[in-house]
Amino acid sequence: MSSDISAIAAQVQHNCHVSDANFGSTFSLCGFLLRLRELYKWESGLSPWEEPEPATLLKWIEDRESFWEPLFDQEFRPITWNGTAFDPFDAEGINRTLRPRGYVYGAGYVTGMKPSFFLGELVSSKTIGELRVDVVGKELARDLFTSPAMRLENQIFARRQPMTAFLWGHLFEMKHSALNALQFAVGQYGVSLEELRRSPRDRASSIVAMAHAELDIWIHHELGEVFQEGFEVDTWREIVGSHAGTPVEIYARAIKDILADTHRHGLLGHIARHRLAASLAFYVAFLPPFSKILFPEILRAFKVFRTSGDWESIEDVRKKAYERTRSLAASLVTLHGQQAAKGSDWVRERILAELIEPLGVLKKSVPGGTGGWEVPSSSQGPAESGTSAGRP
């Protein structure tokens, strides 16, 4: 890596540190600690299946928290190269300079309106319609938030390292509710889940190959986000900006993610059209808790599919879910439309009472930014994958 790229990486990493120092509270405590562990692995050059010694990790976390203290309330620095200072959110301008050198940069706002940045090696580029897709290999700078696939306007970033870590995390954790789907998915690749978990180092090439293949499929979640008809861009930004860190944001993101996946050009539409059985199984295995509540039909349909192989039933479920979720999005947008007259607090309470509480998912939490309520996370699926970059 040349000295000028190293200098840019250092600048990007500084902004990553500032974001982590000031927005770490965006995550739940459990999510925060898991992300710290993944960040430590990345900084230490460990593979996703290599676990650090607990004492070493704990000491690193303590040191990192001390390192963050002087960064509280700091502003992000411009990215300077060859005498030109770029706004750190001007990814398009920075990439005009970086791409010819074989690198790509991403910047935007993600869940909880946390600013997120990365710099990585550009593996390949392609266009799908008017969208540019950059596949990112080794990452040179990143923050606590990583997402296998992200969209910034008409730009999609497909990040291989986060995808591999994400896939292994689910294989290793192997929740009971996802066991059958995971076994089915990896079986389509000719390997067994037990072998992968027992000897990940020996099966590393299989894990990486699956991650890369599925990442190519997950790009279609981002395409679905472009085409979904539930939220206009400005309205979407107002909703997540007004309710960042609350159950309303989690609900809105879950709705939008299902809209994206169930659109005919989205992830499930692509999977059904090309009959990608492994990807369907991974989709079901990775479905976040809140999405399972909003989209239970796919769980029942997959249970039947495992023995029948009936793609028509999957397509039927997709179409019906898209129309139902459009209706949910319309209700959310209608309530949001009263914000100018009645204020965001009133709107938030109405959304909670009319749209979220009937789902039976709210539980009382300690007072805080969520308005005293918590809902199941909407992250860790194609949609955390799919949490779009950009402003916001």
Automatic annotation (TrEMBL):
Biased composition (Polar residues): 376-392
Disordered: annotated span: 368-392
One Pfam family from the record: DUF6866_C
InterPro entries membership: DUF6866_C, DUF6866_N, Sfum_1244-like
Protein origin, superkingdom: Bacteria
The DUF6866 domain, residue ranges: 8-159, 165-352
NCBIfam families recorded: Sfum_1244_fam
Protein name: Uncharacterized protein
Organism: Desulfoglaeba alkanexedens ALDC
